[in-house]
Amino acid sequence: MKPILPGAMLGLLGGGQLGRMFTMAAHRMGYQVTVLDPDADSPAGRIAEQFICKEYTDQAALQQLGAQCTAITTEFENIPADVLSALASFSTVSPDARSVAIAQNRIAEKCFLQTHGFSVAPFAAIEHVDCADNVKNLFPGILKVSQFGYDGKGQRYVNSETELVDAFVEMNSVPCVLEKKLPLKSEISVILARGCDGSTAIFPVTENRHVNGILDISIAPARIPAMLAEQACDTAEKLVHILQYQGVLCVEFFVLDDNRLVINEIAPRPHNSGHYTIDACITSQFEQQLRALCGLPLGNAALHHPCVMVNLLGDLWQKGTPDWYYLFGQTFAKLHLYDKKVARPGRKMGHFTVLGATVDEALKNALLIQQHLGSS
């Protein structure tokens, strides 16, 4: 692949906060960006050189994007895979349609991982009511919609076949995956990039805490044994090579009580748990996404400070604009707001990252800031 150098126009499918941070990284490195998103008030669309406010399947919009962009990427995995295939006839597209098709469908994803020998939770595809029979070994379990579920949405805990049928009907009888609930010690993620030449760069393993299915805090590096971190990185690297993946990919793992690792899911894009890389790594995940897309050498993914990233949800805005003064007074903290105009409960409005000499120091200070914001 011939390298795509600064000055080129890059295309971006999706205009949310991930797209906004990619666009900011592209601008810093001298590239231009065209965003395609159906939301007229998209955070990335407001700062891009060009904004096409159309549906992702709009043929005229896709032709325009393909004609004016040297390379095209995505900010989330729910772009129809055939859209990526169509764009590939115009421009370089990363990630490719095959990888996205696997990652955007939980049934396809679980089957792919299992087929290639990766550890996953015991599961069954539930595509119609009759599939709810003979799955007693999967209870207690979690029923998840196969597509378009995120941040805990599209999921139900079930303890019996009766509860499974009821939940399946409540979820409009769309294809689902039933996963056995496993005894968890913690949840971690590995974000890595793979270039067009097959080279890889792996960010430090991140320890993640969730509240109501939404990521609350990410801690880097994860407080897990070194051998377990190495195993997670090796597994993620093996996966991107099998996929022949180009771009940034996140692999989410469950750490079980006996320290076994099980892959929860994969995301073919930068990830919420990797936002800390903007402030705490030599190369951010968004710069890495651009480097992989443009055929450039991958950057150094090393951590220069232990850190903690905290999500800021719309709940904080329900009594008015949060009091940021305390946070700004902490010289080890960095605030990132996504310029979203409507602050709904559960909506990701921003994040802050706290650096420290140690993980424990960063976590202590991050929790103090989070507590202050919640009580202000």
UniProtKB/TrEMBL annotation:
Kindly tell me the pathway this chain contributes to: Purine metabolism; IMP biosynthesis via de novo pathway; 5-amino-1-(5-phospho-D-ribosyl)imidazole-4-carboxylate from 5-amino-1-(5-phospho-D-ribosyl)imidazole (N5-CAIR route): step 1/2
- Which reaction is this enzyme known to catalyze? 5-amino-1-(5-phospho-beta-D-ribosyl)imidazole + hydrogencarbonate + ATP = 5-carboxyamino-1-(5-phospho-D-ribosyl)imidazole + ADP + phosphate + 2 H(+)
Gene3D superfamilies in UniProt: 3.40.50.20, ATP-grasp fold, A domain, ATP-grasp fold, B domain
- Uppermost EC category: ligase
From the UniProt record, which GO molecular function terms apply?
5-(carboxyamino)imidazole ribonucleotide synthase activity; ATP binding; metal ion binding; phosphoribosylaminoimidazole carboxylase activity
Q: Where is the ATP-grasp domain?
A: 110-294
Any one GO CC term of this protein is: cytosol
InterPro entries from the xrefs?
A: ATP-grasp (IPR011761), ATP-grasp_carboxylate-amine (IPR003135), ATP_grasp_subdomain_1 (IPR013815), PreATP-grasp_dom_sf (IPR016185), PurK (IPR005875), PurK_C (IPR040686), PurT/PurK_preATP-grasp (IPR054350), Rudment_hybrid_motif (IPR011054)
Entry function: Catalyzes the ATP-dependent conversion of 5-aminoimidazole ribonucleotide (AIR) and HCO(3)- to N5-carboxyaminoimidazole ribonucleotide (N5-CAIR). Catalyzes the ATP-dependent conversion of 5-aminoimidazole ribonucleotide (AIR) and HCO(3)(-) to N5-carboxyaminoimidazole ribonucleotide (N5-CAIR).
By sequence similarity, the record places it as follows: Belongs to the PurK/PurT family.
PANTHER family given for it? PHOSPHORIBOSYLAMINOIMIDAZOLE CARBOXYLASE, PURINE BIOSYNTHESIS PROTEIN 6/7, PUR6/7
Report the protein name in the record: N5-carboxyaminoimidazole ribonucleotide synthase
**Source organism lineage?**
Bacteria, Pseudomonadati, Pseudomonadota, Betaproteobacteria, Nitrosomonadales
